[in-house]
């Protein structure tokens, strides 16, 4: 879906339930939360902020990110570039995936004017230089692998190379006539600002080892979403730490970029689900791990959450369901026994079929990873607030 569709607006989630009584899941956009998240980066990060499209490519979410002021996009494939540029012709796309399909770089450069690319090995560099015959128009970022540090999910076992090998690749980039740059990714949901300082120092030493003044430094993503129970530090700690680390480059540091995904969008989306069956201490919802809940299967992702639960009374009024909570096993609607959350959720003991559970902070990787398995495909949207 690329055409703009006016979404229904409501004063609150309770009003959505009251008016729609939804029997299918509903994604709820909170525009003010998108605005606040973007403002953090646009006001305080010392460079360009790229939205990592992979975190949530839904046009409804892209519109919120654009409206919040983000103009640069971290795109990992040609279809992502096509999606963004079709919707926002004035956007700037950066092809920041270290591995690309044959011909993808050529198409991105010739059709969309994309000039930023990432490599971490000779093969990808050779392929890129073979497809783009004017390397002097490119910024080529060599990706270094960083230690796991404070991230919940590491991303350096798949991508990135050693400082020594990166220095060699940087020399090749410079010899080809392209602008040599460095990038890294400290890992997803990074809870330690110091991890960025460590990675910046690795980048500085790599550039020194190569004997090259780099043209740009991309700090990747990893900035955390504010999930309850994750003990997320204040965002200004990250920005202050990064600024201090950049000072080690000397009187002036290279232009910098970052690629937040969940930090820009996690708070901006809630999800309304309905209980379709209760059996003893097991609940069956109209959404599951094949739909919006893939992230909830990760270690610690559901820790600390208090889920709002609502019931409809005999007069169809929406009432919060309180009372003593108990651990309940939560299954999705498909026929697969793997469609179950790995940990019970603490929910009101009186919850029953027909009640509604609202999941907060669902912006990242919920929509992106949903499938249509068994015919279930959540795709209803609403907006709360302005």
Query: In the CATH hierarchy, what is the class of the largest domain?
Result: Alpha Beta
Strand content: 15-25%
Number of strands: 20
Helix share bin? 25-40%
CATH superfamily of the largest domain: Alanine racemase
Mean pLDDT: 95
Helical stretch count?
A: 11
The shape is elongated
Separation, N- and C-terminal Cα atoms: 22 Å
Biggest sheet layout: 10 strands, mixed
CA radius of gyration: 23 Å
Unreliable sequence segments? none
Find the structural class using helix and strand composition. Answer: alpha/beta
The structural domain count equals 2
CATH fold assignment of the largest domain: TIM Barrel
Annotate the secondary structure layout:
Layout (H helix, E strand, L loop, with lengths): L8 E2 L2 H8 L5 E4 L1 H14 L3 E5 L6 H9 L4 E4 L2 H10 L4 E4 L8 H9 L3 E4 L2 H10 L7 E5 L7 E3 L9 H14 L2 E5 L4 E3 L3 H17 L6 E2 L16 H12 L9 E3 L3 H4 L3 E11 L2 E4 L22 E5 L5 E3 L4 E7 L13 E4 L7 E4 L6 H4 L10 E5 L2
Helix pairs in contact: 4-5, 7-8, 8-9
């Amino acid at each position: 879906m690329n055409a703009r569709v006016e979404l229904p607006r409501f004063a609150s989630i309770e009003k959505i339930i009251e008016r729609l009584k939804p029997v299918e899941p509903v994604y709820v956009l909170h525009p003010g939360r998108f605005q606040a998240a973007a403002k953090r980066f646009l006001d305080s990060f010392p460079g360009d902020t790229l939205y990592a499209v992979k975190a949530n490519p839904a046009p409804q979410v892209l519109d919120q990110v654009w409206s919040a002021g983000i103009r640069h996009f971290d795109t990992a494939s040609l279809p992502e570039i096509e999606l963004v540029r079709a919707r926002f012709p004035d956007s700037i796309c950066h092809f920041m995936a270290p591995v690309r399909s044959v011909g993808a770089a050529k198409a991105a450069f010739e059709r969309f004017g994309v000039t930023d690319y990432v490599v971490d090995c000779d093969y990808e560099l050779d392929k890129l230089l073979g497809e783009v015959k004017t390397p002097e128009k490119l910024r080529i970022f060599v990706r270094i692998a960083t230690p796991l540090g404070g991230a919940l999910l590491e991303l350096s076992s798949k991508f990135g190379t050693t400082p020594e090998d990166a220095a060699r690749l940087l020399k090749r980039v410079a010899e080809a006539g392209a602008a040599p740059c460095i990038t890294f990714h400290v890992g997803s949901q990074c809870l330690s600002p110091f991890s960025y300082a460590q990675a910046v120092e690795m980048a500085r030493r790599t550039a020194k080892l190569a004997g090259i003044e780099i043209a740009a430094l991309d700090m990747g993503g990893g900035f955390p979403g504010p999930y309850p129970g994750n003990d997320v530090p204040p965002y200004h700690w990250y920005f202050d730490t990064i600024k201090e680390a950049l000072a080690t480059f000397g009187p002036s540091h290279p232009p910098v970029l970052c690629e937040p995904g969940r930090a820009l969008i996690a708070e901006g989306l809630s999800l309304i689900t309905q209980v379709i069956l209760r059996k003893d201490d097991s609940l069956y919802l109209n959404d599951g791990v094949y739909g919006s809940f893939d992230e909830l299967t990760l270690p610690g992702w559901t820790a600390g959450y208090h889920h709002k639960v609502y019931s409809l009374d005999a007069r169809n009024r929406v009432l919060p369901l309180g009372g003593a909570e108990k651990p309940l096993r939560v299954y999705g609607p498909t026929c697969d026994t793997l469609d179950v959350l790995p940990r019970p959720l603490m929910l009101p003991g009186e919850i029953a079929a027909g009640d509604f559970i609202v999941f907060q902070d669902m912006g990242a990787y919920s929509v992106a990873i949903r499938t249509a398995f068994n015919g279930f495909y959540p795709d209803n949207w609403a907006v709360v607030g302005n």
